[in-house]
Specification:
Blueprint: E1 7-12, H1 15-26, E2 32-36, H2 39-43, H3 60-65, H4 67-84, E3 88-92, H5 95-107, H6 109-116, E4 120-124, H7 136-143, E5 146-149, H8 155-159, E6 164-167, E7 188-192, H9 197-217, E8 222-227, H10 232-239, E9 246-250, H11 254-258, E10 261-267, H12 270-278, E11 282-286, H13 290-299, H14 307-312, E12 319-321, H15 327-337, H16 340-351, H17 354-357, H18 364-374
Parallel strand pairs: 1-2, 1-3, 3-4, 4-5, 5-6, 7-8, 7-10, 8-9, 10-11, 11-12
Helix pairs in contact: 1-18, 4-5, 5-6, 9-10, 9-15
Length: 375
């Protein structure tokens, strides 16, 4: 395929995947991209088949509630791939949607014809089989032709089933490792309720109570919320009723904000890794549907939720999950992080993870792009 222009059908179903997808696209300027993505991939030139907000759903109950929309989007995406006849399909995270689309194609006559003519399916972001349901590795081996994982320790879980797997480092480490706090004693409190509407709706009332309490006790704090396209309007309308000043910034300016952040209170997810790389003192919180929490506690095989805690195998970031994610507990952790000694210890612990984020100092998007063009 080196002698012809590549055509890739690329799919990213949430903000972190959209960011990585855009970086991969920038590394491949002579490749034709079609597919599904968000605002970052659109700026890179992609005309998205539909808004990624339709796919930004997490949790067992939430997925059931949006089943009709997801089913329709799976069908539309598979049909679009058949019409476009790309050289390969590159899916980024959003594992349920990605596997459903590929599965539908592999079972259809038209999809099987494309496969016979050389269509391949590559996936970025290995499922955390080391955390729960290790048998998923075998299912990925049956679904995809290649997998791009973040860390070396993940490879054996998939290669033992014959799935070609490449470790590329954590994508967000590009440009983040080495960034540091530049706030000059600023008192910016960054509140990050997540990118999915379901998690935002659950966390915003808690963040409101925390912000109001801190505002009353110390009016010097400034509260800022980074927003993404899927939740921007909801958050803007919500904070109007808080009764205290709250600034909103676009997601593409979040790294500048993080470098000036005194303390962050963040939804569990990719953002906690971003904050860890910049060494921002952070409290990780997450609220889910009670049934989803009940299910998760019975299948999760690891102690921690945030990636930096998992990599270091210790509680660097305090984690308040489920019912523990309440204003009282957050304020208690916040008080701890105003202590100079505790802040310094957390920052030193975060520095211990710096060498774990990247693969020999190489840019993950470039590693993926180079591999795509040579295959």
């Amino acid at each position: 395929m080196q002698n012809k222009k590549l055509k890739i059908f690329i799919i990213a179903g949430e903000v972190s995947g959209d960011v990585l997808g855009a970086k991969i696209m920038h590394e491949m300027p002579h490749t034709t991209f079609v597919g599904v993505g968000g605002e970052n991939m659109k700026r890179a030139g992609l005309k998205s088949l539909f808004p990624i907000s339709d796919l930004a759903v997490m949790g067992a109950i939430e997925v059931v509630a949006h089943a009709r929309t997801l089913t329709r989007r799976i069908r539309e995406t598979a049909d679009a791939i058949i019409d476009e006849k790309p050289d390969l399909v590159l899916t980024i995270d959003s594992p349920g949607f990605a596997r459903s689309v590929v599965g539908r194609l592999r079972k259809s006559r038209a999809g099987q014809k494309l496969v016979a003519n050389g269509l391949r399916f590559y996936h970025v972001v290995a499922p955390q089989v080391w955390a729960w349901r290790p048998t998923r590795a075998k299912k990925y081996a049956r679904t995809f032709d290649k997998l791009y994982a973040f860390f070396d320790f993940e490879l054996p879980y998939f290669t033992k089933y014959g799935l070609a797997t490449v470790a590329v480092g954590h994508p967000i480490s590009d440009g983040l490792v080495g960034k540091r706090y530049t706030g000059n004693n600023s008192k910016i409190i960054t509140l990050i309720p997540g990118s999915r509407m379901s998690e935002v709706r659950r966390l915003m009332p808690i963040f409101r109570d925390v912000a109001r309490t801190l505002h009353v006790n110390d009016g010097g704090y400034r509260f800022v919320i980074p927003t993404v396209e899927t939740t921007r309007e909801y958050i803007a309308n919500n904070v109007k009723n808080w009764g205290i000043p709250v600034d909103l910034v676009d997601s593409d300016k979040r790294y500048d904000l993080y470098c000036k952040t005194y303390i962050a209170i963040a939804a569990s997810g990719t953002v906690s890794a971003e904050l860890a790389m910049i060494h921002v003192p952070t409290i990780v919180v997450y609220r889910m549907n009670p049934i989803t929490v009940w299910l998760a506690r019975r299948v999760i095989r690891i102690r921690w939720a945030s990636l930096v805690n998992i990599l270091l195998n210790r509680g660097v970031y305090p984690e308040l999950l489920g019912a523990d994610a309440n204003a009282k507990n957050i304020l208690s952790c916040f008080s701890d992080l105003t202590n100079v000694g505790m802040r310094r210890k957390m920052i030193n612990d975060l520095a211990d993870a710096d060498k774990l984020w990247q693969k020999s100092g190489k840019v993950p998007a470039k590693i993926i792009a180079n591999d795509l063009t040579k295959n």
